[in-house]
Design a protein that fits this description.
Layout (H helix, E strand, L loop, with lengths): L1 H8 L7 H14 L8 H17 L3 H29 L1
Helix pairs in contact: 2-3, 2-4, 3-4
Length: about 90
């Protein structure tokens, strides 16, 4: 059900940001000097700036950026939880 809700809220042009942000998130996880709690904020800022550049300076661009960042974190958590179950 949550996938259907996200699918209706996120513009199809913004889907390309999800794997890009996920790769950036993987790079951030490998960086020792950046605290783990800042990863979400960095991804959100990059996502919002990218949406502002693509869609223009509108409030909808901000919402798209936040939704795409949330979807990226959700995908990361799903992949991470599945890999933990497989290792057990």
């Amino acid at each position: 059900m949550e996938g259907i809700i996200l699918e209706t809220l996120i513009n199809p042009e913004s889907y390309v940001l999800i794997p890009v942000l996920y790769i950036i998130l993987l790079f951030l996880r490998q960086t020792p000097r950046i605290e783990t709690w800042t990863h979400v904020w960095i991804i959100t800022v990059i996502s919002v700036i990218s949406c502002f550049l693509y869609y223009g300076f509108h409030i909808n661009s901000f919402f798209q950026g936040v939704l795409v960042a949330g979807a990226t974190i959700l995908v990361k958590d799903l992949i991470h939880s599945k890999s933990l179950r497989i290792k057990k």
